[in-house]
Each structure stands twice: as structure tokens, then as C-alpha cells.
Records
---
Amino acid sequence: MPETTRPLPTDDPTQVAAFEARIAAGESIEPKDWMPERYRRQLTRMMSQHAHSEIVGMLPEGNWITRAPSLRRKLSLIAKVQDEAGHGLYIYCGTETLGVDRFDLYNQLLDGTAKYSSIFNYPTLAWADMGVIGWLVDGAAIVNQTILAKTSYGPYARAMVRICKEENFHKRQGYEICMTLAKGTPAQREMLQDAVNRFWWPSLMMFGPSDTHSPNTAELLKWRVKRKTNDELRQRFINLTVPQAQELGITLPDPDLRYNAETKNWDFGTIDWSEFQEVIAGNGPCNRERLEARRAAHDEGRWVRDAAAAHAAKRSQATAAA
Amino acid sequence: MSDVTGAPVGDSHWPLWEVFTQENQGQPFEHAGSVHATDAEHALQNARDVYARRGEAVNLWVVPSAAITASAPSDAGPFFDPGNDKAYRHPQFYIAPRGIRIF
Amino acid sequence: MAESEELGIATGEAQAGGRAVAGASRGPVLGPPLVEYLLRLGDDRLILGHRLSEWCGHGPILEEDIALSNMALDLIGQAASLLRLAGEAEGQGRDEDALAYWRDGVRFRNALLMELPKGDFGFTVVRQFLVSAQSVFLWEALLASTHEGLAGVAAKAIKEAKYHLRHASEWVVRLGDGTPESHDRVQRALDDCWRYTGELFAQDEVDAAVAALGITVDMASIRARWDQVVDDVLQRATLTRPADGPMRHGGRVGRHTEHLGHLLSVMQSVARAHPGATW
């Protein structure tokens, strides 16, 4: 990201102190408020990654729109993928209040310099994936976003409130698909179990590296951009999800998963962070395909965007001349 | 080249519009978010598709973002505090005898 | 009607007996007119909605991904209602999913225009414009249909179609009167679509039978209003209306282009791999 190439201006310590006092008092920061340059950049990075994730996240599910096995499922899948476009848009629009342009952010996604959630670099191989993504991936996202709705930056928090409201339907439709498959034919149950096997660990990785290895966590917590650590959120997600898996009668692919009566948490096995690093580094199963699909859409749409801009210019000239 | 909003067009940078939605007849318009669009009608259509998908609006306003002037947060003190101590602007300031309806 | 004579459509039972080699109908066998008519309306929307849904995630700009998905949702929603009515009229226990997922291509009754591949964004909006203009006037007429269920669908669908027409018209104008490249692209799309527009207004004995019952109207009146809107928008878009040459027909009686088979092989693949499963 360009943020690493530009030197940070030094912020006035008294202004920083006043800013941090506001954060400590639980105030929310608005676009025109003074903010440390680091805060602005951390937010820009985090929000744009979040928005990119929504947009790239349209692809694995979009992959099954044309094959949804009933009209009801087809409608709800289109509506869900459409919401992801909407959510990307809400967050981009929140990011634009920090003085960046959506098109520039988008170009960073297309040229591979910006990151997005690694989960979307896994392929969707069966219809059951639509259920499991809704249940686990959206479930994990909701755990994250519910906390983000209290983030210190006003526009981000407001976008999150709107998104959380809408995403509840995503998780429910996912779980409903899983439930239908779990009660279905042996082939449907097998399809469901296989999808869970593939998506369980990547879902846990969605919360990001363990706190001890997360370079940004401390600062983000101090400024209340984040309100909980990656590990806390991950544990919360697992605790919520295990009973749901039991209800479905499927197994989670972790032999070390067991209830800890003392901590009241579900203890789990070791996450393979080398896989996570590989996917982040661009070597996941679908990194290349995802970016290529976005680039193709962008390139093939250029003439459309240019034409609309040219038409508007002609019209405003005509109005001016009249 | 520039458009009605004063923002440059071309190279596919469509200008930004702020969207305000009215949830029910008679209620105030609230800021919902923004969209990119080439002109007002286009902005209205995009706003409809993005911010009224679930029937959240019965009316929409779109305004070029560049046309909005905001108060500066650093001026918040002198700008707004003087309004805080004018208790005589609020009905509770005045004493009315118990049991009598003034309105 | 001229076109059905050409196709040799036989309504009702096939004329040939089981073993006879000679004497079979030259055309497809059609079901009762009301069922056929509802399938035509429903399949038009199912197939066009499916084509629009292919854009989801691949639009020229995020706002447009959302808009195209909205239209796909409207159309597939209409299709579900119409196919349900068709199943009820047929009375053989088939619901909208049975009709959408378990009919073969020759049983589909959509107009050919709907099944053509999505093409570029210009093609998509031109087709959407031509179809939406027909839909608006058709739904307006069907508000007064003697078929209560159909009139009910019309009451909801008319609003959706009006918005589709507004959205598509604006895009036709923007692209037609945009850059030289966009102008050429939409003019070509218009030329490509044109020979399929006749089928949107064609009438055979199925239409005549339902029209006689007050279920639908004479398409000639709709055609006249369609012409007006098309001329108006094309003029604003600086596009040239193509000449009415020979028109392509066949979709209404199951004689499709090769594109439909591929569309269905994708659309029906999951459902058909698991007979009897619920989703």
C-alpha cells in the first residue's frame, strides 16, 4: 500500500492528547475532526480491506447463482450477493470520508497491492458451500462486525450498523440451507459435511493472526478502532458455533475441540498459520482467479463508465448553452 | 472537463452524491450514505437501488457531495455552546399552575 | 395465423396413432391454452432474469451490479408466481420448481430474445429496454385480466416493469449518446436484437383462445404503444431504428436457439443430480 511509502507527518502532541482523551471518553470521531495521521491511515487500510472483501466475496457465491436448485434459493442467493455489493459500497463510501477516492482504492485492489479477506480465495465446489458460507463465514463476519459497530470512527460505525441489520438474513439463510441438507438425502448430508470440512479452518482464520502476532492490534485497540482482540473474537465465534453444529448433526474437523468447564470455552486445535500466510501472500487456491474476475469486470466496464461520463458532460454543456 | 457538481469526469471517476432517505411520509430526511453517478437522475436511480432495496424509503434526495458545506468541528464550542444556556427557549423554564392545561 | 401454419402447430392431441410412422404432426404438441399462455409469460421472465443474474459480481460499476440484481430478482419473482399459476392451471401437481427445473428445453415457451447470451453491457440494456417496454404495456392491460391470479401478478409486476423501463431507457440514451464506441456498441446490439422483437407481439391460436376469454388482450394495441416509446428513446439516444426484416420465431412453441440448452444445463444441474431431494 502507498501508505508505507509515504513518510508520516509528525502530529502535534497536544492535539494527539486531546484526541486520545476524546476516544477515552467514548466520543465518536467524525470526518472533519482532527485525527492523528496514523489513525487516518489505519482506518483507511482497515475499511478498504473490509470493502474489498465484500466485493471479492461476491464471486465465490456468485459462482452458484445460476445453479441454485430452487427458485426460492436462487432469489435469496441473488439478494445476498447483491447485499455484499451494497455493503462494499457502504464501506467504500465511509472510507471516502477520509479523503480517498473509491476508484483509487479499487485500483489498489486490482493491482494486487491491497488485501482482502483470505476466505474468499477458497473455491466453492458444491451447492452446500452456499449454506456453509452463510453459516460460518457470515457468522464469523457478524461476530466481527457487531463489535465494529461500536468503532470510534463514526462513518465506519454507522455503515456497520446498517450492515449488521442486513447480514442477519445472510446467516439465517445459510443455516437454513445447512439444516435442509442435514435433513436431506445421504448425498446431501455428505455434501454438507464436506463443505464444513473445507470451510471450518479458513473461517477461524478470518479473525486474523493470533494477538501475539498481530502487528496492528495494540494501536487499533488503543484508538478503539477495534474493541476486541482477534483471539477474543475467534473464541466467541467458536463458542457460538459449536452448538449450532451439534444441532445439524455434523462434525467439525478438529479432534482437539472440547468443552473446557473451567473457562466455559470450547478449546480448539492449533491453526495452521502457514496456510494463512500462503493465502495472504497470493498463493491460495483462487487468488489469481478472483482478481482476474474483478479486473475483467472493470476493464470490460470501462467503455460504459466513460460513455456515461461523456453523456453527462454533453448534457451539462447543452444546459449551459441553453 | 467538469460536470454540474464541479468534479472532474472522464477516466471513469464519476462524481459523488450524498443520499438522504425519508422512511415514512411526513418524517424528516436522514443521511443514508453516498453513491457515484454521472448526473442527478442517474444518482437518484443508483440511490434507489442501493439504499431502498428493503423498502426503507418513500422519498429520496440526492445532493452533489461537493455542494455540502459543513460546520467545522474545531468551531463546535463557539458555534453551538451559546445555544446551551438559553433555558428560556424551552417550555420547562416557565411555571404553570398544577391541574391547568396550558395547551 | 401465418407463423403457426408455417410451423404446423397442432393443439391438443397428436394426430398420429402409436405405431404409425406417417401422419404425425409436423409441429410440437401444445397443452391447454391457459397453461401455455402462463408458461410463456413465466418462462420469458425466468430466462431473462437468469441472464441478468449472470451479471451479479461482474457489472461495469458496483452501483450497476446492484441495479441489475434488483431487476433479476423482480423478474425471477414474477416467474415464480406465473409458473405457480401455470402449474395450478395444469392440475398435475407440478409447482414452480418442477416446471423450472424438470422441463427440457423443447418444453420452454420463452421468446428467443430472452435466451440470447448476456453479451456486453450494451446488449444487456438494449434487450432490457425492448422487453421492458413490452412488459409495461402488457402488464397494464393484464391488470384487467379476467384471470384473477394473473391480474394479481400484474398489479405488482407493473411497478417493477416501469422501473426497469426507466432504468434501461436512461442507459440506452447514455450509451447511444455517449462516446463513439458506446454508440457503435449499442447500435450493433439493437440491430442484433431487432429480428427477435416480432416474437414479443406475435399471436397464435393460444393467444387467441385466452384473449377470447378476456384473460389477455390483442397485442396489436400494445405494439403501437411500444413503437412510440422505442422511437422516442432511440431518438434521444441518437440511434437508428432498424428496418423490420424477417423476424425470428419459435420460442413460444419450444423451437429454441441452441443457447437455451446450455443455459438449462447449468440452471438445472444441481436439482437434476438429486431427484426427489428438497432444498
---
Amino acid sequence: MIDTPLLSVRGVSRHYGAHIGCSDVSFDLYPGEVMGIVGESGSGKSTLLNCMSGHLAPDAGEVVFDTRADGPRDTVTMSEPERRMLSRTEWAFVHQHARDGLRMGVSAGGNVGERLMAVGARNYGDIRDKATDWLGRVEISESRIDDRPGTFSGGMQQRLQIARNLVTGPRLVFMDEPTGGLDVSVQARLLDLVRGLVRDMGLSAIIVTHDLAVVRLLADRLMVMKSGHVVEQGLTDRVLDDPQHGYTQLLVSSVLQV
Amino acid sequence: MTDQAYNFAYLDEQTKRMIRRAILKGLAIPGYQVPFASREMPMPYGWGTGGVQVSAAVLCPDDCFKVIDQGADDTTNAVSIRSFFERTAGIKTTTSTKAATVIQTRHRVPEMPLSEGQILVYQVPIPEPLRFLEPRESETRKMHSLEEYGLMHVKLYEDIARHGHIATSYAYPVKVEGRYVMDPSPIPKFDNPKLSDSAAIQLFGAGREQRIYALPPYSRVVSLDFEDHPFEASKADHSCGLCAAEDSYLDEVIVDDVGGRMFVCSDTDFCEARRAAGHKGKDAA
């Protein structure tokens, strides 16, 4: 049993004036674990994700990440250069809209290579080889390497975004509605791909979504949020099959059966 | 109104003081873009308003002033800026690189190596090397302050992916003293090596963008590249048609409507000096 959590969130709160973004959230994420966060729109899922990934500064609480170099560090109080370095090397962030996470004016290869160059890769041949390899891993044809993401379909853009994020071998991936806006067959392929990558690379992931099918498929543990508070958390199957809190019961029973 | 109604070198003393402070800060932090309160100048943006303000701030009554535009002393921009300072500062002007103490330039570095005591003033249209990759100024400033320059290489990567080699041929990004990435203004990359270890002070003024940056003498300036695609200073593969120089940057001139062309030095002073010394190219009359 590994005893140091990869990410340890303690009492994270964020308010927007009088309005609560998220309030007093605490949990541990262990290496190799996938955590799902579900809840309705406006329940504070994305606020929490942004607080953990350094995009937003929480009003209170700490986010302790087990860095490769220095062991556990609080990312809220660490300096901005250090935090940005973490977000380039040990973290990955997959946006809901691929356009937010990609450089649309730069070719697919350039998009994948950017993080490599940002951490000091200066050999064109090596960068190109890595980019080709990663495009292959996310099932994008090698012949598209010099095309711009604008010419890609929505599903391909999303897969490109994943390749671009994983190329530097991060340990923790934040995903904000990774399958939002994709049709179901493309969703299924994407989920399959993500599941494979998470297993192969031993990644930890935090996935924010409102789609219960996504967490059922990917997440080991589940956290249910409502109005900024965590109302229930536990093993995914337990929470989905035996919901305790009234809101979770509502959520589970609201899923349409085909 | 007479010309005497102007303060020496057009700008008032307070403005010059403000610009000099920006220049000193720029010299203290080589390659760092110092914001300054650019003034309206009696010329349109893009015609050297930044360079003119920097020149006005550094000119002294006993300076000798030279202006070049694409290397030439006799083009519109060069002639009008030269006469502007003749009228408003009453200083000596010259076309000789050697005799000048202040040289304002657009898009070239003189062929002749500069010496200590000379000042080279560049006109800069866009001071931000990351501009076309990252449009947010707030973000590019953060990238400069945190030394996050991976994006600059993405541009070079794109060049190689598309053209098979680094096709950026002017405004080629450089790294100054191992710290700031700087846009050397749209000089041809042929001139990039001349920026490094130069004996002269090099000042860069961007009027519309309100930025000044600088290279103190003998600064180390390295052009960015990849290990397997090193930087190469390129020029047209010819010799000058007038003075037969092999090692100067050349302009291509179309001479008739049946495909005739000649290559001549873009640095007119350099070319004239060589011709006066007896060198003769194949197209010389």
C-alpha cells in the first residue's frame, strides 16, 4: 500500500463575493487513482478543479502535491514560476473545449511539441519523433502532423489535446468535461482511449463531468457536489448503485435509460 | 513659426529626460522592453517615430548623425529624418558610417563594424517577439518575466515542418545575455551576428507600441535555433554588381522587363567606399 497521497486537498474554499463557489472540500488522491467529480451545473465542480490546478487561487485551504523533486508541497503558497513549471511537467489539463487547450494557429505536431520545447527540448528530430509517436497513440494519422487543428473534427481535436498534455509524462491529469459536446460514438472511443492511457501510464486523474456514464467507466472513486458542498463521496460503484444522499439519488434516477 | 521655435532636437527637455531614463533602464536590463510615454511625432506611425524619439533623446549638439533605411542613405525615410534633425537640432549629418556618432537605422545594420562611442538606433515596428504566437500582452509579459520561451521555438518548429528549414529570414528572434528573448527589429537574419559583441551601444525604439529596449556594448546575443537545424546567416548567393563585394547583404534590383536583374549592396555607404577604393563589379558602368 502506498501511503503518500499524490494530491491532498484540505479545506479548499472559494467564494465569489457572497456567492459560494466551493466550500471546505477535502480529499486525498493516491497514485494511479481516478477520481470523478459530478454534480449539476453551478455546483462548483469547475471552481474546485481550477483551484486544484492553479488556475484560480482558493480563498482558504491547501492543495498539497507530492512533487517528484521535493516531495509534498502546498501548491497554493508556492511561487508562481514553480507552479507554472509543475503545470508544464507533472500536471496536465484537458479543457472541455479543445480550442481552449490547443493553439489553433499551430500545426498538430507543433501543438504536441510545445510542452517538450517548454521544458527545454531543442532537437527538432527528437521533438518530431515524439510528436509522431503521440499522434499515433491517440489514433491520429501520421499524415495529419502538419495540419492545423482547425481542420480536425471535434473528437480528433480532443484527442490531440490529450496527446499535447501527456507528451511530457505528467502524473496528474485534470479533465474538465472531456467528452462534452462530442457525439456518443466519439465519446465512447475517447473514453476507451483515456482509460487505456491512464492504465498504461499509471496516471492519476481528476475528472469533472455531469455525465454519470463517464465516471462509471473511468473513475475509481466519486465525489458528488451540490451548491459548492461535497454531499457524498465513495467508491464509484457504491455511490452509483447505492446512493445515500437525496441529491445523489435524484441524480442517479435522472439518467435516461435507452 | 521659425525652426528656432523648437527646442533642440524637437522634443522638450522633460520628454527627453523621460526617454533617457527608459534607455538607461533598458541598458541595465539588456533585451527587456521598457515601457515609455511615446509622444506624437510629426510623422506617421511606422515611419520611425520610436527611433526618432530615441535619437532626439541621445543627440548632443556636437554629434554627427547618419540615417539609413534598408541600408541606403538616399531613400525617402532616411532623407526626411536626416533633414528633420538638421532643421530642429542643427547638427552635422553624414552618410559615412565611420564619421557618424549616432546612426538611426531601419531594417539594417551597417556592414562596417561599429566602434566604441557610436550609437545605433533601430526603428522597431513590433517589439514583442511572441506577439503572433500569444496575442495577450499580459501573458507575454508573464512569459518574459518567468523566462518561458518554449513558444518561440514552436514558431521555428513550424517553419521547419512547413519548409524543411528555418524560413524566418528577418526579425529573427535572439536571446540576450542568456536571459531575455528579443525581437531584433526586422533586420535580415544576415545581420544577427553583428548584434553580438558589438562595440557600439544599440538602442531600439518602438513608437506606436511605446517600448524601448537596448543592448549595451559587447552584449552576448544568440540567435535561437535547434541542435539539428542550426542558425544560418543567409544572403543572396551573388556578389555586388557595382563593387564586387562577396560578403555584404545584397538587394535584388529588376532592371528591365525581360527578366534582367542585378544584385547590389544594400549598404550604399559601404558600396561607395569600395568603389572609391577601385573595386569594380560586373554591372558597373
